[in-house]
Amino acid sequence: MANQLSALLEQWYPSRDSCDWVLGTVYKTEGPCYRKAGAMMLFNSLGQQFGMLSGGCLESDIQTHARKVMQTGQSISLCYDGSDEDDLAFHLGIGCGGTVYIMLHPVTADNNYQDLEVLRGALSQRQTVRYCQQIPKHLSEVTVQSICKLNSDSPSEITTQASINSFETVIKPDPHLLIAGGGVDARPVAVMAKQLGWTVTVWDPRPANARREFFMEADYLLNDKADQLTQFVETESVDMAVVMTHNVELDADVLAALNGSGIHFMALLGPVNRKEKVLKQAGLTEDELLQPLSGPAGFDIGGELPESIALSMLSECHQRHYKLQSVHVKPHASVNQEEAA
């Protein structure tokens, strides 16, 4: 099961009123920890857990505390110190050795579902949001409502106002990957990208390629001319593209269409001399490209099979998106608690 926040919210939404729910959030870490500040998880009264707040060693104990939150309707804070031999986390076998701080909030209609409906809607529209939760001071504090603030791109942080501590984190939609080329070697790329929770589009104008029976996991299958990709990239907020049609002319058409679009990164399959041919066919030089182009695509991991090549290319895309890209926030109306109610 996917652990992306968007996937958790899709699991929660249909049954949000049929059982009790608790939202768990890591709001602070010290030292090495498996999950970092901003990680979220959902628990329900049926005993189900969606997501992870550790490497799997703390979830059972957190579930016990989540049941108490469901019973009392009160938010609580938890601290697990993996470096302290007297702390519960040490005896639970937490392997990282760090300290993790977690808050648990009940999710009910009375507290506007902690604005998870608003958050779900924003992510479905591929909008970056800033999500704010007040941190409980102690175990008996009454639950507090969260606020979903938009139009902010500062890093996740703990803020204090009027003696109230809040945890604010930027939440971005899952990446959208365009695979230009619907051949056999593109199939593992689509499968692995979906396993990562990404939105996947496969494009190929050739009738024998990019067929639904070969790409059951893909969110979109396109067979228009390459110049139609520019509008699609903008409309559907595509982040990255892997260009692998095995046809110099088609690859060149894709690069020409995507150059200057809203895409953040392109990867071109094939050796360096082929990249030069594709650029020449597209009437472009590397200096004229308005976004980074990797060619050959992927990291050198010593693989030769399509699955290994797919892993290599997706690893580079993953690094580019999560580590090297800054947060991009699209302007849209602000949403506060009163407007969402």
Strand content: 15-25%
Based on helices, strands and strand pairing, what is the structural class? alpha/beta
Put simply, the count of helices is: 10
β-strand number: 15
Layout of helices and strands:
Blueprint: H1 5-12, E1 21-30, E2 40-44, E3 49-51, H2 59-72, E4 76-81, H3 88-91, E5 99-107, H4 116-124, E6 129-134, E7 147-149, E8 157-161, E9 164-171, E10 176-180, H5 187-195, E11 199-203, E12 220-222, H6 229-235, E13 240-243, H7 248-258, E14 265-268, H8 272-282, E15 293-294, H9 306-324, H10 337-340
Parallel strand pairs: 10-11, 10-13, 11-12, 13-14, 14-15
Antiparallel strand pairs: 1-2, 1-5, 2-3, 4-5, 6-7, 6-9, 8-9
Question: How would you summarize what this structure contains?
Answer:
Helix content is 28%, strand content 23%. The chain is an alpha/beta fold and 341 residues long. It has two domains: 5-173, no CATH class; 176-324, NAD(P)-binding Rossmann-like Domain (Rossmann fold, 3-Layer(aba) Sandwich).
